[in-house]
Amino acid sequence: MKPIGDSNEDMIVLIEAVTSIKNELLYIREYFHPLLKGEIYLSGEQVCQMLHVSKRTLQQYRDDGQIPFIKLERKILFRESDIIKVLENNYQRPIEIKRIL
């Protein structure tokens, strides 16, 4: 086995491999969240994307007590299970429209 760095091609391959690993780690950090006692905690921005609402609307939901949240100093977190529960509790079936012949 020859030592790494004997040629420019070796360095290019090494840099590409390191860049690829870096990109994978950034993806994992962005999209995979560690569980804490089996729970996934989401940021306000993630909840806004999930519900397709603005930050102000999410703030109003919090103020009105519609969505539970956790406040750690200045950081607001939401349990994913709480968000799903709120969605399920507020689900409304479509109204059946009967045709009049």
Short description:
The protein is mostly helical. The chain has four helices and three strands. The chain has helices at 8-31, 44-51, 55-63, 80-89, and strands spanning 41-43, 70-72, 75-79.
Topology:
Blueprint: H1 8-31, E1 41-43, H2 44-51, H3 55-63, E2 70-72, E3 75-79, H4 80-89
Mean pLDDT equals 85
For the termini, the CA-CA separation is 84 Å
Low-confidence stretches: none
> Structural class of the secondary elements?
mainly alpha
**Overall morphology:** elongated
Level of helix content? 40-55%
Give the amount of beta strand, in percent.
5-15%
Name the helix and strand elements from N-terminus to C-terminus, one letter apiece.
HEHHEEH
Largest sheet: 3 strands, antiparallel
Return Rg in Å: 23 Å
Spatial arrangement of strands, main beta sheet? 1-3-2
Helices, by number, come to 4
Oligomer status: single chain
- The tally of strands reads 3
Task: Throw out a few tags for this protein.
3 strands; 50% helix; single chain; 101 residues
Can you characterise this structure?
The chain is 50% helix and 11% strand. It is mainly alpha-helical and 101 residues long. The longest helix has 24 residues, at 8-31. The radius of gyration is 23 Å and the shape is elongated. The chain starts with 7 loop residues before the first helix and ends in a 12-residue tail after the last helix.
